Amino acid sequence: MINFHSFIKDALAASLEIQKRLQQNSPSLYEKHTLGAGGDISYGADLVAEAIYISHLGKYAKIDSEESGVIGDGKYTIYLDPLDGSENFKTNFPYYGASIALCLQENTVVAIVVNFISSEVFVRTENEFYKTYLNELTWKQSVAENSSLSSVGIVEKAYDKPQKLTVLKENKLKFRSPGAVALSLAYAHYVNYMLFFGTIRVYDMQAGLYICKDLHIYQDEEMTIISKDSDLFDKLCKLYNKEQF
Length: 245
What we know:
CATH superfamily of the largest domain: Fructose-1,6-Bisphosphatase, subunit A, domain 1
Shape: globular
CATH topology of the largest domain: Fructose-1,6-Bisphosphatase, Chain A, domain 1
CATH class of the largest domain: Alpha Beta
Largest sheet: 8 strands, mixed
Radius of gyration: 18 Å
Number of helices: 7
CATH architecture of the largest domain: 2-Layer Sandwich
Number of strands: 15
Strand order of the largest sheet: 4-3-5-6-7-8-9-10
Distance between the termini: 45 Å
Helix content: 25-40%
């Protein structure tokens, strides 16, 4: 049986180490490597982050990483995106992090999403759901499920369906498209809604959807719709079912 608190502690120690390495801005971090298991070209930063997570977490479980695929064996599986938002990192757009899901027979038992820019960390287990910071790991804050200040949504992979976005404008639904799926799923508690066009890869979905499990969620092969607001969620689902986006 895995000690979940030890797993979380080691995952956050690895994340802090990665954050420091990324901040060094070494030219090797931007070098192209081979095609990763997730279907994208791996860069030096992806592989550095992956190696650090493996060194800290490989003792707990088999790792299925977006970069190298399955590593090791074990009863548990860690679904890992070591650098969520790689394109943002290599273009110096400050929105990227990591996604870590510890699973037993495909059931997530620990979900961790890290923002390497803000140092925010979202952690969810069966009994806990909180936000902390890489430089203040002893501080925990319950994640807000409702906020009267929410005024925008997040739409990921918006570039793939630009013709669909006019529907959101017509319905006065403001949005941003920052380009890091697991991070955007983690922030779904703070925005009006989150949409994703297409199928979310397991490396981002496994942790992100578990973090969102208390929200309203619809998902199929074409669309993911998430909102904390039941009326808005129903409205978005109706728009989708009418093939308006």
